[in-house]
Write a structure and sequence with these properties.
Blueprint: H1 5-11, E1 18-22, E2 25-29, E3 39-42, H2 55-76, E4 80-84, E5 98-103, H3 122-138
């Protein structure tokens, strides 16, 4: 997509700080990092959100994310990583991207980036879980996480 900055980074027409470039995607530094070494991993094709990622690209893309998540702490001496993605809400660039943020105990990052909410009671939590489970089954997803 011509007006997508991440597509332009993938194409090499917009400069970035590349970390890795594979058939499954491109990884580069976030220009507004949570911590130094904050990497964005994007699939090569223009895909807006996780639910649009074709099944045949899933293993390759997330395998790539997994390898980047292993490389970040090893390269930076961090203890681990925070791996996350937004889907539409708070997605500053409408191209699927996964954040891989280096983490170290005591780094000052507390919890998640969004406020926490509580369920009114266990019944509300159970009803919510059932609604999501029902939709999951409706979509034809098996226990292995694959569509039937």
């Amino acid at each position: 997509m011509a007006d997508c900055v991440f597509c332009s980074i993938v194409a090499g027409t917009v400069p970035a700080f590349p970390v890795a470039d594979t058939d499954d995607g491109v990884a580069f530094l976030d220009v507004r990092p949570v911590f130094k070494g904050h990497v964005l991993v994007v699939p090569r094709p223009h895909i807006v959100q996780l639910t649009d990622l074709p099944g045949e690209l899933m293993a390759g893309y997330f395998g790539f994310v997994q390898r980047v998540a292993a490389a970040v702490p090893a390269a930076l001496g961090a203890t681990g990583t925070f791996v996350a993605m937004n889907n539409l809400v708070s997605q500053s660039v409408p191209h699927l991207h996964t954040h891989v943020v280096p983490r170290t105990k005591g780094d000052g990052l507390r919890g998640f980036f969004w406020p926490r909410r509580k369920y009114a009671d266990d019944d509300e939590a159970a009803e919510t879980a059932e609604l999501i489970g029902k939709e999951y089954r409706r979509l034809g997803v098996t226990e292995t996480g694959r569509r039937e």
